[in-house]
Design goal:
- This protein is of the alpha+beta class.
- It has 2 helices and 6 strands; from the N terminus they run E-E-E-E-E-H-H-E.
- A hairpin with a 7-residue loop joins strand 4 and strand 5.
- The chain is elongated, with a radius of gyration of 15 Å.
């Protein structure tokens, strides 16, 4: 993988698919925290899942960061989020929440 040798990276110790070490530039992550997470989900009523690499101190923080970014990207304000939650019992469906280790 070609990248700037001075770029900070997070190293996944073992890829479950390929069995190799994977380096991911910090600029690919949203949020702030000490642990790297992969969070995938969607806005209810949408057929397409979206995934983000998230830095957070725990899973709850990672999921909240994901939800906020997902709705920001969709242009959904708090009123829209409340309407979605009222209709679907949640404003976000999370399908994957995985700590990258």
């Amino acid at each position: 993988m070609s990248q700037d040798s001075n770029a900070p990276v997070i190293v996944q110790s073992q890829s479950p698919v390929y069995g190799e070490v994977v380096e991911i530039p910090l600029c690919q992550f949203i949020g702030s925290g000490r642990l790297p997470w992969l969070i995938i989900g969607r806005v209810p009523g949408d057929d397409d899942d979206t995934g983000y690499l998230v830095l957070a101190d725990d899973e709850s923080q990672a999921q909240e960061t994901f939800k906020d970014r997902l709705h920001d990207d969709a242009g959904n304000d708090e009123e829209v989020r409340a309407n979605i939650a009222g209709r679907y019992d949640s404003d976000t469906y999370i399908t994957t929440s995985h700590l990258l280790t």
